[in-house]
């Protein structure tokens, strides 16, 4: 996955999860937890791919 695409996916998922309007999406707790897990995986992928050699 390209860097820009990965960042865009992280931004979209993060904006949903951190939105004050999350409750209006009528998601159950399992769905929200899955979204959080996906965000963590995408973020880890980004850090491992693009930030691990930065010091």
What is the global morphology?
Answer: elongated
* Series of secondary-structure elements, N-terminal to C-terminal: HH
Largest sheet: none
Regions with little confidence, pLDDT below 50 for 5+ residues: none
Overall number of domains: 1
Could you give the count of β-strands?
0
Number of helices: 2
Mean pLDDT: 90
Strand-helix topology:
Blueprint: H1 3-17, H2 29-51
Molecular structure report:
- There is one protein chain.
- The protein has 55 residues and is mainly α.
- It has one domain (3-51).
- 69% of the residues lie in helices and 0% in strands.
- It contains two helices and no strands.
- The protein has helices at residues 3-17, 29-51.
Summary keywords:
55 residues; mainly alpha; 69% helix; 0% strand; elongated
Quick recap of the structure?
By secondary structure, this protein is mainly α. It is built from 2 helices and no strands. The radius of gyration is 13 Å and the shape is elongated.
